[in-house]
Amino acid sequence: MTVPEAIAIAAAGFGAGTVNTVVGSGTLITFPVLLAFGYAPVQANVSNTVGLVPGGLAGTHGYRAELEGQRRRSLLLGTMSFVGALIGAALLLTLPASAFKAIVPFFIASALVLIVLQPWLSRRLEARRRTHRPHGGPWTAAALFATGVYGGYFGAGQGILLLAILGLALTDSLQRVNALKNVLATVTNLVAAVVFVFAADIAWDVALLIAVGAVAGGVLGAQLGRRLPPAAFRAVIVVVGIAAIVKLTA
User: Fold this and answer.
1) What angle do CA 122, 173, 110 make, to 5 degrees?
2) Of 94, 154, 170, 243, which residue is least crowded by CB atoms under 10 Å?
3) To 10 degrees, what angle do helices 97-131 and 27-36 make?
4) 1 secondary structure, DSSP code
């Protein structure tokens, strides 16, 4: 690995840590960078997952005020993410690498659509919050389990999925919902990362560089990220995501 490549990977980790803390989908920054530097898709995915865990922990700590009073809820809903992530990580390791390469472009494209629709979705959720008082139930548990499976397998855009699910199920403010989203996404990544540590081929230098950048992004990046207009932020992610799709399908 060259010095410029190391700097680029750490910078991508910083961007991913920032985006994951604010909304989600940071994998759409780091994953294409690793592909561009020649890492195999599955190795890039598992190394990225391991590297992003410290950033998720830092971002969750940064939202500790909004998490006050949500301990029981975090434990209950986190169980769904935990079990789903185990299954998703197992699928990644048992399905052939060709399956990952075939499936992931669809996942990335779906995540990009969610990113583009995110402003509209947020407005719809806010309107629903003012006129309804929905409560979590079996459908919420099922949706969080499915998102955990997705997050354990790949995970780009899982934060946006979690915001949509929790925003419909809970009556808290979006900031408190986002804090809970960070907990569930971090649980998913942590569980998958533990599985990968024991059963996957991790590029540890890559994981370490992403981790360093992601921690900085989780702690300091949210404030910096909010200075960039949301539309510009989404545009950057969409361009990077399209590049990843092109890379995977070439």
Assistant:
1) 30
2) 94
3) 160
4) -
pLDDT tens-digit readout, 31-79: 989 999 999 989 999 999 999 999 989 888 888 888 888 888 889 899 9
**Cβ-based neighbours of 146, under 8 Å, separated by 6 or more:** 84
Quick: pLDDT tens for 175-233: 788 888 889 999 999 999 999 999 989 999 999 999 999 999 887 765 654 455 667 66
The domain limits of the chain are: 3-249
What are the percentages of helix, strand and coil residues in the chain, rounded to 5?
A: 85, 0, 15
The C-alpha atoms of residue 175 and residue 149 are separated, in whole angstroms, by 25
Q: Which of 58, 76, 65, 50 is nearest to 17 (CA)?
A: 58
62: phi > 0 → left, psi -120 to 50 → alpha, else beta; which? Answer: alpha
> How far is 155 from 191, CA to CA, in rounded Å?
13
Cβ neighbours, 10 Å, residue 198 = 6
